[in-house]
Amino acid sequence: ATIIILSSSTVESFSASMANLEYVSPPASDAAGQIANPATYPRTLYPEIEAIEEGYLDVGDGHQLAYDVSGNPNGIPAIFLHGGPGAGVSPRERRFFDPAIYKIVIFDQRGSGKSIPNASDDLEKSLVGNTTPKLVEDIDKLRRHLKIEKWGLVLGGSWGSTLALAYAETYPNDLDALLLRGVFLFGPDEIDYLFSNGGTFGQNPQAWETYCRYIQDTSKDWEREQKNLLGAYWDRLTSKDCSVREAAAAAFVGYELSISKTYIDPAIVEKYLGTPSILIPFAVMEVHYMLNHGFLRRGQLLDCIATIKHVKVAICHGRGDYVCQPQSAWRLHQALKKVGCEYVELEFVSGAGHSDSEPGLVDAMVRASDKLAIELKA
Prior knowledge:
Strand order of the largest sheet: 1-2-4-3-5-6-7-8
Low-confidence stretches: 2-17
Largest sheet: 8 strands, mixed
Shape: globular
Distance between the termini: 34 Å
Order of helices and strands: HEEEEHHEHEHHHHHHHHEHEH
Helix content: 25-40%
Structural class: alpha/beta
């Protein structure tokens, strides 16, 4: 689960009139003007940089992954794993790393962003081989394709934190450090809280009720579907009717955007919901993975945590994260300490929600990235 970030120039190129806002709850008030003038923190993103290499990698199953490399060609290899699943990346993600120190790799996971096929272009093909074990293999294939001996740092937020942990536990000797934001362990309690049993009602009742109301308003059997909201969304997201698919995606993504940030900018929500190439993969992939429990055995990530006790781990989590609850970060932190991980740091960030666009989380992540660079160079 994640919020996606577009640059201002990208946002301006989309028409808000395309967005379906019928099933999106209104944001809370912002009397202090935090949307336009967010709080100032010691650290912000590094300046924008251009890619020094980009291309497509054929990983099999009909998928070609779009990737690019930036920063120091001889630096510490670092890779950014985006959230969603299905959110894709943008050049902004390069800026969490010091470009003088890190060799930065970003890529779009299967069915997402610029990777081929995108779920909005070919839904059926985008789902072929789209599982966690396959995505883990893709990261290793990309590492070998780029002739990188091992990753110095793997950064993942939200679903990206899940994928980072799954990758690390599968290839524990191929990385030195993890930087995780908005931890999601894919436990049944986390899935149900977010999408099935109304756990978010406690923080944002309007968002939860709007998420449910879309299914109720479009249901021929509400008594059955209210017991399986994810399944009901899946039926609509995979409909042969394009208008049904897009309406379901708008309702689903609109719900998550409504709870992802401390301060919600309605204009940004409109732009996201009016961009099918982002909207459809985000909704389809997320429901696909939620219905299949992340293609992970129940409790797998914590059960196998001892395999990465030698890895340096930094965790940044918003205290007000309503998407991925802070308890997940705490459970991971405690599990790592219990198996003897010598470097594990957890920072809960006051005034921050889930999104890595939250100023407090940006500050924490950049500081953690910088600190790990010093540790890795030592």
